[in-house]
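--- STAGE predict ---
source: upstream dedup step, 1 unique chain passed
mode: sequence only
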Amino acid sequence: MWVIRANRLRLWEGVWQTAPHRSLLVPVAMQPSEREGSPVDGEGTRQPWRSCRRLRTAWPLIAMAGVIAACGTSARTLPTSRPTSSPTPSVTASPTPDVSDAAVIAAYDAYWSAVNQADAASSGTGAWNTPALSVTMVNPLLQQWQNELMQEEAQGIMVTGTFTAEHPVVASNTGTTATVSDCVWDTTVEYYKASNGSTSEVVPNQPGGTQPGGDSVQVAFTLVSEKWLASSDPTVEYKTCTP
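--- STAGE serialize ---
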Protein backbone atom coordinates (compact mmCIF):
# COMPACT_ATOMS: atom_id res chain seq x y z
CA MET A 1 0.00 0.00 0.00
CA TRP A 2 2.87 2.38 0.70
CA VAL A 3 3.88 2.10 -3.01
CA ILE A 4 0.45 3.31 -4.12
CA ARG A 5 0.47 6.22 -1.64
CA ALA A 6 3.96 7.24 -2.89
CA ASN A 7 2.83 7.16 -6.53
CA ARG A 8 -0.23 9.27 -5.71
CA LEU A 9 1.94 11.86 -4.07
CA ARG A 10 4.19 11.98 -7.10
CA LEU A 11 1.23 12.45 -9.45
CA TRP A 12 -0.18 15.30 -7.37
CA GLU A 13 3.13 17.10 -7.26
CA GLY A 14 3.74 16.49 -11.01
CA VAL A 15 7.36 15.79 -10.33
CA TRP A 16 8.99 12.60 -11.47
CA GLN A 17 12.22 11.27 -10.16
CA THR A 18 14.99 9.72 -12.22
CA ALA A 19 14.64 6.27 -13.66
CA PRO A 20 16.53 4.50 -10.89
CA HIS A 21 14.24 6.07 -8.30
CA ARG A 22 11.10 5.29 -10.30
CA SER A 23 12.06 1.67 -10.57
CA LEU A 24 12.09 1.46 -6.81
CA LEU A 25 8.48 2.66 -6.69
CA VAL A 26 7.16 0.08 -9.14
CA PRO A 27 5.39 -2.73 -7.26
CA VAL A 28 7.56 -5.80 -6.88
CA ALA A 29 4.87 -7.98 -8.42
CA MET A 30 5.11 -6.07 -11.69
CA GLN A 31 8.11 -7.43 -13.68
CA PRO A 32 9.37 -5.71 -16.84
CA SER A 33 7.54 -8.25 -18.96
CA GLU A 34 4.28 -7.09 -17.45
CA ARG A 35 4.93 -3.46 -18.41
CA GLU A 36 5.32 -4.04 -22.13
CA GLY A 37 2.57 -1.61 -22.99
CA SER A 38 3.84 1.33 -20.90
CA PRO A 39 5.07 4.40 -22.81
CA VAL A 40 8.81 5.02 -23.39
CA ASP A 41 10.45 8.39 -22.82
CA GLY A 42 13.16 9.91 -24.92
CA GLU A 43 15.88 8.01 -23.10
CA GLY A 44 14.28 4.63 -23.70
CA THR A 45 13.04 4.35 -20.08
CA ARG A 46 9.50 3.13 -19.61
CA GLN A 47 7.31 5.45 -17.50
CA PRO A 48 5.27 3.85 -14.70
CA TRP A 49 2.22 6.15 -14.71
CA ARG A 50 -0.03 3.61 -16.45
CA SER A 51 0.89 0.99 -13.88
CA CYS A 52 0.07 3.48 -11.11
CA ARG A 53 -3.25 4.32 -12.73
CA ARG A 54 -4.12 0.65 -12.93
CA LEU A 55 -3.29 0.25 -9.26
CA ARG A 56 -5.31 3.33 -8.31
CA THR A 57 -8.26 2.13 -10.37
CA ALA A 58 -8.07 -1.42 -9.09
CA TRP A 59 -7.80 -0.47 -5.41
CA PRO A 60 -11.46 0.56 -4.91
CA LEU A 61 -12.57 -2.60 -6.70
CA ILE A 62 -10.40 -4.73 -4.42
CA ALA A 63 -11.74 -2.93 -1.37
CA MET A 64 -15.33 -3.33 -2.58
CA ALA A 65 -14.76 -7.01 -3.27
CA GLY A 66 -13.49 -7.41 0.27
CA VAL A 67 -16.60 -5.71 1.63
CA ILE A 68 -18.89 -7.86 -0.51
CA ALA A 69 -17.05 -10.99 0.56
CA ALA A 70 -17.34 -9.92 4.18
CA CYS A 71 -21.05 -9.22 3.77
CA GLY A 72 -21.57 -12.54 2.03
CA THR A 73 -19.88 -14.55 4.75
CA SER A 74 -21.22 -12.75 7.82
CA ALA A 75 -24.41 -14.19 9.23
CA ARG A 76 -27.28 -11.81 9.70
CA THR A 77 -28.53 -11.72 13.24
CA LEU A 78 -32.16 -10.82 13.65
CA PRO A 79 -32.99 -8.64 16.63
CA THR A 80 -34.62 -10.56 19.39
CA SER A 81 -37.46 -8.95 21.27
CA ARG A 82 -37.39 -9.07 25.01
CA PRO A 83 -40.48 -10.53 26.62
CA THR A 84 -42.49 -7.86 28.31
CA SER A 85 -44.00 -8.60 31.66
CA SER A 86 -47.63 -7.65 32.16
CA PRO A 87 -48.27 -5.42 35.16
CA THR A 88 -49.81 -7.22 38.07
CA PRO A 89 -53.34 -5.90 38.59
CA SER A 90 -53.81 -4.31 41.94
CA VAL A 91 -56.38 -5.90 44.18
CA THR A 92 -58.55 -3.45 46.05
CA ALA A 93 -59.54 -4.68 49.45
CA SER A 94 -63.24 -4.63 50.21
CA PRO A 95 -64.20 -1.96 52.75
CA THR A 96 -64.81 -3.25 56.23
CA PRO A 97 -68.48 -2.81 57.18
CA ASP A 98 -69.21 -0.59 60.13
CA VAL A 99 -70.86 -2.87 62.68
CA SER A 100 -70.57 -0.40 65.52
CA ASP A 101 -73.50 0.64 67.69
CA ALA A 102 -73.22 4.14 66.25
CA ALA A 103 -73.86 2.75 62.75
CA VAL A 104 -76.91 0.90 64.04
CA ILE A 105 -78.30 4.07 65.66
CA ALA A 106 -77.77 5.98 62.40
CA ALA A 107 -79.79 3.32 60.56
CA TYR A 108 -82.50 3.58 63.21
CA ASP A 109 -82.83 7.35 62.73
CA ALA A 110 -82.97 6.87 58.95
CA TYR A 111 -85.77 4.32 59.40
CA TRP A 112 -88.07 6.76 61.21
CA SER A 113 -87.24 9.49 58.70
CA ALA A 114 -88.44 7.20 55.90
CA VAL A 115 -91.69 6.44 57.78
CA ASN A 116 -92.37 10.15 58.24
CA GLN A 117 -91.75 10.82 54.52
CA ALA A 118 -94.23 8.10 53.53
CA ASP A 119 -96.87 9.39 55.96
CA ALA A 120 -96.48 12.92 54.58
CA ALA A 121 -96.97 11.57 51.05
CA SER A 122 -100.19 9.79 52.08
CA SER A 123 -102.21 12.94 51.42
CA GLY A 124 -101.69 12.18 47.74
CA THR A 125 -101.14 8.89 45.95
CA GLY A 126 -98.26 6.45 45.76
CA ALA A 127 -97.02 6.90 49.33
CA TRP A 128 -96.21 3.17 49.40
CA ASN A 129 -93.59 3.76 46.71
CA THR A 130 -91.62 6.39 48.67
CA PRO A 131 -87.95 5.78 47.73
CA ALA A 132 -86.69 6.17 51.31
CA LEU A 133 -88.57 3.03 52.35
CA SER A 134 -86.52 0.66 50.18
CA VAL A 135 -83.33 2.48 51.20
CA THR A 136 -83.81 1.92 54.93
CA MET A 137 -85.76 -1.36 55.08
CA VAL A 138 -85.59 -4.93 53.84
CA ASN A 139 -88.25 -7.62 53.66
CA PRO A 140 -90.35 -8.63 55.43
CA LEU A 141 -90.62 -5.17 57.07
CA LEU A 142 -90.46 -3.28 53.76
CA GLN A 143 -93.35 -5.30 52.34
CA GLN A 144 -95.41 -4.80 55.50
CA TRP A 145 -95.09 -1.02 55.35
CA GLN A 146 -95.86 -0.90 51.64
CA ASN A 147 -98.97 -3.09 52.08
CA GLU A 148 -100.24 -0.91 54.93
CA LEU A 149 -99.78 2.29 52.95
CA MET A 150 -101.54 0.80 49.90
CA GLN A 151 -104.50 -0.23 52.07
CA GLU A 152 -104.73 3.24 53.58
CA GLU A 153 -104.67 4.80 50.13
CA ALA A 154 -107.43 2.43 48.97
CA GLN A 155 -109.54 3.45 51.97
CA GLY A 156 -108.89 7.15 51.49
CA ILE A 157 -106.87 7.49 54.72
CA MET A 158 -104.01 9.90 55.23
CA VAL A 159 -101.66 10.32 58.15
CA THR A 160 -100.58 13.58 59.76
CA GLY A 161 -97.94 14.11 62.43
CA THR A 162 -94.56 12.43 62.93
CA PHE A 163 -92.58 9.90 64.94
CA THR A 164 -89.53 11.32 66.74
CA ALA A 165 -86.77 9.11 68.14
CA GLU A 166 -85.82 10.32 71.61
CA HIS A 167 -83.25 8.12 73.38
CA PRO A 168 -82.43 5.05 71.27
CA VAL A 169 -80.25 2.37 72.82
CA VAL A 170 -78.68 -0.64 71.11
CA ALA A 171 -80.06 -3.56 73.12
CA SER A 172 -78.06 -6.20 71.18
CA ASN A 173 -75.50 -6.32 68.38
CA THR A 174 -73.99 -9.53 67.01
CA GLY A 175 -72.25 -7.86 64.08
CA THR A 176 -74.88 -9.07 61.62
CA THR A 177 -78.09 -8.42 63.55
CA ALA A 178 -79.00 -5.76 66.08
CA THR A 179 -81.96 -4.49 68.10
CA VAL A 180 -82.70 -0.90 69.13
CA SER A 181 -84.99 0.10 72.00
CA ASP A 182 -86.46 3.58 72.35
CA CYS A 183 -89.30 5.73 73.58
CA VAL A 184 -90.60 7.40 70.41
CA TRP A 185 -92.62 10.57 70.63
CA ASP A 186 -95.73 9.92 68.54
CA THR A 187 -97.90 12.75 67.23
CA THR A 188 -99.44 10.88 64.32
CA VAL A 189 -103.17 10.90 63.65
CA GLU A 190 -105.09 9.10 60.89
CA TYR A 191 -107.74 10.96 58.91
CA TYR A 192 -110.13 10.16 56.14
CA LYS A 193 -109.37 12.33 53.19
CA ALA A 194 -111.85 15.12 52.56
CA SER A 195 -113.90 14.81 49.39
CA ASN A 196 -116.37 17.09 47.64
CA GLY A 197 -115.50 19.99 49.93
CA SER A 198 -116.24 18.05 53.12
CA THR A 199 -114.12 18.16 56.26
CA SER A 200 -111.56 15.45 57.00
CA GLU A 201 -112.69 13.03 59.67
CA VAL A 202 -110.58 11.25 62.23
CA VAL A 203 -110.37 7.51 61.80
CA PRO A 204 -111.99 5.94 64.85
CA ASN A 205 -110.33 3.37 67.10
CA GLN A 206 -106.88 3.93 65.74
CA PRO A 207 -103.98 2.49 67.78
CA GLY A 208 -102.69 4.97 70.36
CA GLY A 209 -105.62 7.31 69.97
CA THR A 210 -105.28 10.83 68.71
CA GLN A 211 -103.27 12.38 71.52
CA PRO A 212 -99.48 12.75 71.39
CA GLY A 213 -97.51 10.44 73.63
CA GLY A 214 -94.51 8.19 74.00
CA ASP A 215 -94.47 4.76 72.36
CA SER A 216 -92.13 2.03 73.60
CA VAL A 217 -90.61 0.42 70.52
CA GLN A 218 -88.02 -2.16 69.55
CA VAL A 219 -86.78 -2.29 65.99
CA ALA A 220 -84.65 -5.15 64.59
CA PHE A 221 -81.88 -4.55 62.06
CA THR A 222 -79.90 -6.84 59.75
CA LEU A 223 -76.56 -6.14 58.06
CA VAL A 224 -77.24 -6.44 54.33
CA SER A 225 -74.47 -5.69 51.79
CA GLU A 226 -72.47 -3.91 54.50
CA LYS A 227 -75.43 -1.72 55.46
CA TRP A 228 -77.80 -1.88 58.43
CA LEU A 229 -81.47 -2.13 57.38
CA ALA A 230 -84.64 -2.40 59.46
CA SER A 231 -85.82 -5.96 58.89
CA SER A 232 -88.83 -7.01 60.99
CA ASP A 233 -92.08 -5.58 62.28
CA PRO A 234 -91.31 -3.35 65.29
CA THR A 235 -92.69 -4.18 68.69
CA VAL A 236 -94.79 -1.18 69.77
CA GLU A 237 -96.51 -0.29 73.02
CA TYR A 238 -98.46 2.89 72.40
CA LYS A 239 -98.39 5.73 74.87
CA THR A 240 -96.64 3.77 77.57
CA CYS A 241 -93.42 5.73 78.10
CA THR A 242 -92.19 9.22 78.77
CA PRO A 243 -89.25 10.46 76.66
